[in-house]
Specification:
Helix content is about 80%, strand content about 0%.
Amino acid sequence: MDWILLAGAAFVAGLVDAVVGGGGLILIPALFVTLPEIVPAGILGTNKFSAIFGTGSAAIRYVRGIEVPWLVVFPAAVASLMFSWCGAMSAALLPKDMMRPLVLILLIIVATYSMLRKDFGSNDKNRKYGPKEICWSVLLGAFLGFYDGFFGPGTGSFLIFLYVHCFGLSFLRASGAAKIINVASNAGALIYFGAAQHILWKLALLMAAFNIMGAVLGAQLAVRHGSIFVRRVFLLVATALIAKFGYDTFAGTVLFKL
């Protein structure tokens, strides 16, 4: 029964993650609740294995349906791959709780800005990219790659916001860019977790299959309905993330460790 519930959670996580990120908000708490005997590293490694297949499937669908700005996506993906491995390695050394207040503040800023700017991410600005933008993409990929390997929740949402804000993409194209970079960050963290034998392989394979199905459906919905749909789901997921981080930050006890 637990595996059936986790398969369903993986499907929903894949669907949501394919549109705007935030799948970890669903799947990681589900894993902690149903598998309390498993060490956190095993939970995170199993989640990363499942997530990379769903994110990869969504990325392929986006590449087929939209024009990807590779000039500012590929360098970010390479940096994200390398620094997510460093983040995963650091996860055992640094307390994750110190990240919660900072992430909560950033999420509130991101959600508030997106709500107030009604035209934010509605259309592409067709900017020309040069060395400055490429450098920015590397820095963003490195920072969020490290964050994804170290902590994770909200990485996709932050990537979408920054690619809309910094590179003038629509929400739809930013979501596609975020998926490609997220594949790289998942891969980097997965290399570490796999080498350290922190993956429950049978469960991870089952969850990966359902995550793929959810991700394909989510990417199809995003491409079909466009930036307005992605923006609405983005704001919904950002609000849910704020509620989750707010509870974990200010409540006396943490219900789910992310």
